[in-house]
Here is the input.
Amino acid sequence: MIVNVATVLAALIGAGILFIAVNAVRAPRTVTGFGIPGTPVDDPAFRAWISVKAARDAALGVVLFVLLAVATPAVLGWFLLVTAGIPVGDMLIVLRSKGPRAIAYGVHGATAAVMLVAGVLLLVG
Here is the structure.
């Protein structure tokens, strides 16, 4: 049961990451810097930066789904624990940039927390 809940959480995280990646490429204005205030959405350099972030997110989402398909729960759990550092880093970037705390904690921090919980459940389940 615990592994099933954690697996569903992992799948939701993967789907969310892929959704964000596709939207960042399709409509860069929708991501508007993921919480960093004053992001110049019409600046070509900013759009390039968003494309890099989208590529990172897409690759992570695909790897997560590959692991869901072929890996043991322990391998998936370790992957989630390690990659939870990414939303933590994103949260710290938003906070350092004086972005909205609600986005920093509510989006990035919550994502990291769910990844950590799912990872631990997969390891102990």
User: Anything to note?
Assistant: The chain has a mean pLDDT of 90. The two ends are 8 Å apart (CA to CA).
